[in-house]
């Protein structure tokens, strides 16, 4: 008899890695050759990989996470499979993470560093009193938001994804900031000009002339008709039906 997945299991299934550029999180060779064979606890493994990702999003010479920072990511905590404290202490005992305990105005705080040269240097500086980590005792940081996938945005807002459009989107991803592409699609939807040619024309103009965002004023609204006339007769005339 073949086991059938429940409807809940089907909805929870991973849908696959998206098309387009994805952020790559580097893992050192020592993780695979030395650390990974030793880890025998799923929660510890999840936590260790998660720390590499979260620290990659942080700027600064010395990067760390506090226990409260982990708790801000509800999806991670729910999928951890064990108490956060247990996973943290396993990773500390294993030597993957380094723990520093601080007394702050908000009370005791614990900081976690990767056991890397910079992490070890930070721990020594804290223990010797030569460095006090900025942000210790501050409100916890939320996990970074997931950047929009332009292929999905196109299908949801413009139309079906064809091989030619997919190629054009990939080239646009290499040329323009992701936020520009998302905003240009939004403008195309607002103006009911749902074509890639129109989106591309906006992006090309921003690249050529610079993007100068500003809040709309009453004068801007009174000039809307004139602005539309300029778009129709000028830069986007080949892409607008009129």
Total strands: the figure is 3
Count of DSSP-assigned helices = 13
Intertermini distance? 62 Å
Give me the secondary-structure category: mainly alpha
CATH fold-type name of the largest domain: Arc Repressor Mutant, subunit A
Radius of gyration: 25 Å
- Average per-residue pLDDT, rounded, comes to 79
Strand order across the biggest sheet?
1-3-2
- The gross shape turns out to be elongated
- Largest sheet at a glance? 3 strands, antiparallel
CATH class value of the largest domain: Mainly Alpha
Give the CATH architecture of the largest domain: Orthogonal Bundle
Question: Can you walk through the features of this model?
Answer:
With 242 residues, the chain is mainly α. It has 2 domains: 21-127, Arc Repressor Mutant, subunit A (Orthogonal Bundle); 150-213 and 220-239, no CATH class. Helix content is 52%, strand content 7%. It is built from 13 helices and 3 strands, in the order αααβαααββααααααα. A hairpin with a 2-residue loop joins strand 2 and strand 3. Helix 3 (42-56) crosses helix 6 (84-94) and helix 10 (178-190) crosses helix 11. The termini are far apart.
Based on the model shown, name its key terms.
elongated, 242 residues, 13 helices, mainly alpha, Arc Repressor Mutant, subunit A, three-stranded antiparallel sheet
């Amino acid at each position: 008899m073949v086991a059938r997945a429940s409807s809940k299991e089907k909805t929870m299934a991973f849908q696959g890695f998206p098309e387009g550029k994805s952020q790559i999180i580097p893992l050192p060779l020592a993780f695979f050759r030395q650390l990974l064979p030793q880890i025998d606890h799923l929660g510890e493994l999840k936590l260790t990989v998660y720390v590499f990702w979260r620290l990659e999003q942080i700027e600064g010479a010395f990067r760390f996470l506090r226990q409260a920072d982990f708790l801000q990511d509800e999806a991670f905590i729910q999928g951890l499979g064990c108490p956060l404290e247990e996973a943290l202490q396993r990773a500390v005992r294993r030597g993957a993470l380094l723990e520093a305990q601080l007394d702050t105005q908000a009370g005791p705080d614990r900081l976690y560093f990767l056991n890397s040269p910079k992490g070890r240097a930070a721990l020594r500086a804290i223990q010797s009193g030569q460095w006090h980590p900025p942000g210790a005792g501050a409100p916890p940081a939320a996990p970074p938001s997931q950047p929009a996938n332009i292929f999905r945005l196109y299908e949801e807002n413009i139309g079906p994804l064809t091989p030619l459009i997919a190629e054009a989107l990939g080239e646009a991803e290499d040329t323009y900031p992701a936020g520009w592409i998302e905003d240009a699609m939004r403008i195309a939807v607002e103006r009911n000009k749902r074509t890639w040619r129109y989106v591309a024309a906006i992006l090309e103009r921003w690249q050529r002339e610079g993007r100068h965002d500003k809040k709309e004023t009453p004068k801007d609204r009174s000039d809307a008709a004139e602005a539309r006339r300029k778009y129709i007769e000028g830069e986007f005339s080949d892409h607008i039906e009129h």
